[in-house]
Amino acid sequence: MDITVNGRPQVLPDGSSVLDLIRALKLEGRRLAIERNGEIVPRSTFAESRLNPADRLEIVHAIGGG
Fold first, then answer.
1. CB burial class (10 A; 0-12, 13-18, 19+) of residue 19?
2. What confidence score (pLDDT) does residue 66 get?
3. Contact call for residues 1 and 13 (beta carbons, < 8 A)
4. Which CDD domains does the record associate with it (predicted)?
């Protein structure tokens, strides 16, 4: 399935979840905010939130510093 992540094309298997995307991008364990088609995806639903062809996602991760 073709989706767009931060403006770039990404291909995932059909039926993939937001959590599958996070794993594919090697972003596990990071503090992330994810928006899908203009709506925030709650962290508690990453595993259940199934992606659809042509979804547009924006992923932002927090970077610590001082």
1. middle
2. 60
3. yes
4. Ubl_ThiS
* Structural domain boundaries, residue 38: 2-61
What single string gives the DSSP state of each residue in 24-53? HTT-TTS-EEEEETTEEE-GGGTTT-B--T
Residue 66 counted as domain residue: no
Q: What CATH number is attached to the domain comprising 8?
A: 3.10.20.30
- The DSSP output letter for 10 is E
User: Would residue 24 count as lying in a domain?
Assistant: yes
- pLDDT in the model for residue 61: 83
Angle at the Cα of 20 (from 63 to 23), degrees rounded to 5? 45
Number of domains in the chain: 1
The type of residue at 31 is R
pLDDT score of 1: 96
